Amino acid sequence: MESDANVTRKTDLGWKHGYLADPKNKNDVTCKYCGKVAKGGINRLKQHLAGGYRNITECKKCPEHVREEIIEFMAQKKNARETIDMTHEHDMTDFDDEDEMLMGTEPTGKRKQNSTPTSNAKRAKQVGPMDAFFKSPSQSTAKQKTLNESYKKEQRKKACAEFSKWMYDAGIAFNALNYPSFKVAIDCITRAGIGMKPPSAYEARVPFLKQEVENTNEKMRNHRQEWLKTGCSVMSDGWTDRCGRTIINFLVNCSKGSMFLESIDASSYSKTGDKLFMLLSKVVEQVGESNVVQVISDNGSNFVAAGALLMAKYKHLYWTHSHH
Ligand SMILES: [Zn+2]
Fold first, then answer.
1. Cα torsion 290, 294, 299, 304: sign
2. Is 28 strand, coil or helix?
3. 60 C-alpha vs ligand 1 centroid, how far in Å?
4. How far is the CA of 249 from the centre of ligand 1 (A)?
5. CA 48 to ligand 1 center in whole angstroms
6. Cα distance between residue 303 and residue 281, in whole Å
7. 126 pLDDT exceeds 70?
8. Rounded to whole angstroms, how far apart are CA atoms 66 and 242?
């Protein structure tokens, strides 16, 4: 099936998943899974397996792990190529199958041109990281722009579909997408580029968590300094959880913004004003009684009673209720 002439080509991972039906025609690679003939060499076959390319339909029969392996392989090759471009080593002989960087190009004519590996024409086609900043006359046409746009649109669709799939898999709340931190994360991933190694469970659980706790502590230190300078308000928000417990969240507000302080199971406190007063004064002490200008809570009778006791104890402090 495969001739010796293909020995060098067979180092490409794609050859594990496709073969030449006619050894003399290196352009037509048959997919092992669905039998589709990729007319555009091993590169086109890989696009068929990876999916999401406008040149060729996605393979419906290739196993998911193969698809992932191919996507990873293509990303690594692209990375390697970009690294080489960056270091100005333009000997691209290792990538002789990889000359279709632009998915929007029509391959047939160019492919024939390139079948004799005189590499000047080929080099002209290679796209490096800096190329985005320089328009080449042949690429600056409106048509190319439209192709790029529709290609980008397709890529976005694919990325979003895969991302959503992961969310359903992992049971991530849809609301998580509304977090501003999510947009920041996506921007950073985009900047890191193709082939970025995702964070491992260990990394998220240990080093990055440690780092984030440190960041949060740093922010809290800033807030605490602000409390000292300009004073602050303690806000309490009570709610009942699914088990019927009364939970009170405490937040501290100052000119730098609001900070979550703690969440207390107040089931045993909240019934009487006396006990609630004890809880509130504990929080006030924690924030620093001289810093607290105001305590805000809801206007349940227990809070009203606790508020009166607070104002009696701390002369400079005002208790205010929020309307529910
Ligand atoms: Zn296939």
1. positive
2. strand
3. 6
4. 55
5. 6
6. 12
7. no
8. 44
Q: Ligand 1 centre and the CA of 122: distance in Å?
A: 28
Gap from CA of 278 to ligand 1 centroid (Å): 70
Structure tokens at 253: 């507000």
Terminal alpha carbon distance of the chain: 77
Compute the distance from residue 43 Cα to the ligand 1 centre, in Å.
13
In angstroms, the CA 84 to CA 129 distance is 10
| Distance separating alpha carbons of residues 255 and 210, to the nearest angstrom | 27
Q: pLDDT tens for residues 312-324?
A: 999 899 999 876 5
Q: How far apart are CA 107 and CA 53, in angstroms?
A: 13
Domain ranges of the chain: 4-129, 135-198, 213-322
**CA distance to 150, 236, 274, 311, per residue, from 308 (Å):** 65, 16, 10, 5
- What spacing in Å lies between the alpha carbon of 69 and ligand 1's midpoint? 15
How far, in Å, from the CA of 19 to the mean position of ligand 1? 12
pLDDT tens profile 159-208: 999 999 999 999 999 999 998 899 999 999 999 988 899 999 999 999 99
Q: Largest alpha-carbon pair distance within the chain? A: 96
CB 248 within 8 A of CB 237: yes
CATH hierarchy code of domain 213-322: 3.30.420.60
